[in-house]
Design a protein that fits this description.
Elements (H helix, E strand, L loop, with lengths): L1 E8 L4 E7 L4 H7 L17 E6 L2 E2 L10 H5 L2 E3 L4 E2 L3 E5 L11 E14 L2 E8 L10 E5 L6 E5 L9 E6 L5 H9 L5 E8 L11 E6 L4 H12 L6 E7 L8 H10 L3 E7 L27 E6 L1 H14 L5 E6 L7
Parallel strand pairs: 1-7, 14-15, 14-17, 15-16, 17-18
Antiparallel strand pairs: 1-2, 3-5, 3-7, 4-6, 8-9, 8-13, 9-12, 10-11, 10-13
Helix pairs in contact: 4-5
């Protein structure tokens, strides 16, 4: 027995899939070539959270951090755990563009490696075939000479067949060691993806971007898109780092500010001994004006403490953004 599942994406596109009896909805979608955004498969991350608008189903198992009991009562599900028991209609909080193509692997050639500072490295590769992704998504990059991969956000949109990355240089790291000491033009890598639900949606209201360290990478890709498709909405980016050496790629932000109407940015360094004009965390430089009384879409990419600090700050200010998109990363996981 199978059930007919209608997937309604946030851009208005509807696709139908057939879910077999006892088949997870996420698996059924993947089998039919649709990748519902998902960063885990065990009901722990909440990335694949959707709302069932009609139909019967079982929820499966999940943890409170991924989905609350109140959300479950309100019709929310995790598609990595949900099984349909009738025909269903599911609202997917993602664009159809991020879901319609299966994640695939493509070989790529190293084009350039730049050591931006003792703490940051940029590199560029040329995929053997075009790679499609939404600005903000990441890909799994193979570490040459090993069977391991590391996950990195694209820091550009494709330019003349080349894609770029901005990564943390971690002493003793597997990928960091390769990039800092051994990488050369012509090296072969494999890119698998794209992956992730952190990507720029249609800009319909003011946008606040918050970047921590190399969490700047996905925003650089977003700015590439905004150069090509400018908006009348104000866009403000706050880029925070720990030490002076961590502050990189600001020339790209200056260029973006000159090319994108309404785009502004500030930088800040947390180290009290810094000689930078602004010191402290991103929350120390987030005036009420950039919060627009909650009529703002917030995008945040940074380490978990930064995500938690911003959430606390917004709660204390009594501001509930129209939407809040975030990606937590631990630099040590991207070594």
């Amino acid at each position: 027995m199978s059930y007919r599942i209608a997937l309604n994406f946030e851009d208005g596109v509807t696709r139908f899939i057939e879910a077999r009896s006892e088949e997870l909805v996420a698996d059924a979608a993947y089998r039919e070539g649709l990748n519902i955004p998902m960063d885990c498969r065990d009901g722990a991350c909440g990335t694949c959270k959707c709302r069932v608008e009609s139909g019967d189903y079982t929820l499966g198992s999940y943890i409170e951090d991924a989905m609350t009991e109140d959300e479950a009562k309100d019709g929310f599900v995790l598609t990595c755990q949900m099984k349909a028991k009738s025909d269903c209609v599911i609202r997917i909080p993602a664009s159809s563009a991020v879901c319609k193509v299966k994640a695939g692997a493509v070989s790529a050639e190293m084009v350039d490696v730049r050591k931006l500072s003792p703490s940051s490295i940029a590199f560029a590769v040329r995929p053997a075939s075009p790679v499609a992704y939404l600005p903000g998504q990441y890909v799994n990059v193979s570490v040459p000479g090993t069977t391991q991969t590391r996950s990195y956000s694209f820091s550009s949109m494709p330019k003349d067949g080349v894609v770029e990355f901005l990564v943390r240089n971690i002493p003793g790291g597997l990928m960091s060691g390769y990039l800092a000491d051994a990488a050369k033009s012509g090296d072969q890598l494999t890119l698998t993806g794209p992956v992730g639900s952190f990507y720029l949606r249609d800009v319909v209201r003011p946008v606040l971007m918050l970047a921590g360290g190399t969490g700047l990478a996905p925003f650089l890709a977003m700015l590439d898109i905004l150069k090509a498709k400018p908006t009348s909405q104000p866009i403000h980016l706050i880029y925070g780092v720990t030490n002076d050496a961590d502050l990189v790629e600001t020339d790209k932000l200056v260029a973006a500010a000159a090319e994108i109407p309404g785009f502004t940015f500030v930088t800040t360094v947390a180290d009290p001994a810094s000689s930078h004009d602004r010191k402290g965390y991103v929350t120390n430089h987030m005036p009420d004006a950039v919060l627009h009384d909650g009529n703002v879409d917030v995008y945040l990419c940074g380490p978990p403490p930064m995500v938690d600090a911003v959430r606390t700050y917004l709660n204390e200010k009594g501001v509930k953004p129209a939407s809040f998109h975030f990606e937590k990363f631990n630099p040590s996981e991207g070594k």
